[in-house]
Amino acid sequence: MNGANNNCAIWKQCDSDSDDSVSTFSSAPLWNHKGVKCASLLSHEMQSLEKKLQRIIFIQQTDQSYHLALDDIRDQSEISLLVEPSFYGRHCSTSVIAIATSNNTYIFDVRALGKIFKSLSELLEAKVPRKIMHYSHRICDLFAHKHNIKIDGICDTFVELCVVRQDRGLCSLREAISLTLNIPMSELTCDEIESPRESVRNFTGRPLSKDQLQILGKLAILQQKLHDRLIYGNICTELQQMTTNFSYEFKKHSNSTEEIALNMAPESKIGTECINQFYLISTKMSDS
Q1: Do 195 and 205 form a contact (C-beta atoms < 8 A)?
Q2: What are the tens digits of pLDDT across the range 113-156?
Q3: So which residues are the signal peptide here (predicted)?
Q4: pLDDT at residue 8, as a whole number
């Protein structure tokens, strides 16, 4: 159900079976898919995804797995962060946190843990690792009001998508992944997400099924890929081309070793003419 259909749900707790709220996975209103350069996962990325999904680490207590997870997260320059439920921010109660690093995927059962401990909250409040999120305003509102945590170092894939499309039209994480990575929506869901029980759809019921853990892990991993495609495949494409042109500058010149040696003198500025020092990312947005 779309949140606009039942505004009173905002004032209810998201973990209620009678709640009409929506989860992060709910589809936003239809919007115009324009300007996004799509790029499917490469074969080795697909293989890596499958391997990572087979070794999701589900954490329900502060044991060795918990501390090893924090060590891994601390060593990252960026992580992908997913929280359920979070769609209505402060009006929700955090049930699970999914974090994907470069090698592992962790799902923290906040209900079983009892709270978000200082060791994890300090990582969330640090500028590094950067946190890749979608609809970060909702997640940050939840964490600020329910856990007194101010998340820092945020990279929001929704914001990136708006810049790429030059359009502020709403788009859920699943829709953004489907559009940018050419993955069918049917592969980004599970039966539980369509369940008539709100506690199942919002991941607040227990026990969590294997399919629920798998879809959380999958979306966290793909959210990181989404960020990569939006930044390097869309927003920074001109910058990438400048880099390519600059890196092959000497190849354009004579093969004379002597001439190239002169061009490599310490004060030589050869190649810099291909760099647009006034390069700017367009942030103009439509009124839609």
Answers
A1: no
A2: 999 999 999 999 999 999 999 999 999 999 999 999 999 999 99
A3: none
A4: 33
Q: What is the CATH classification number for the domain harbouring 212? A: 3.30.420.10
Let me know whether 74 and 215 are in one domain. Answer: yes
Amino acid at 123: L
- Judge whether 261 lies within some domain: yes
Asked if the bond preceding 266 is cis, omega within 30° of 0, the reply is no
- Asked if 167 and 34 touch (Cβ cutoff 8 Å), the reply is yes
> Is pLDDT larger for residue 165 or for residue 25?
165
Q: Is 77 among the domain residues? A: yes
Query: What is the tally of structural domains in the chain?
Result: 2
* Structural domain harbouring 283: 236-288
Does some domain include residue 6? no
Same domain, 130 and 268: no
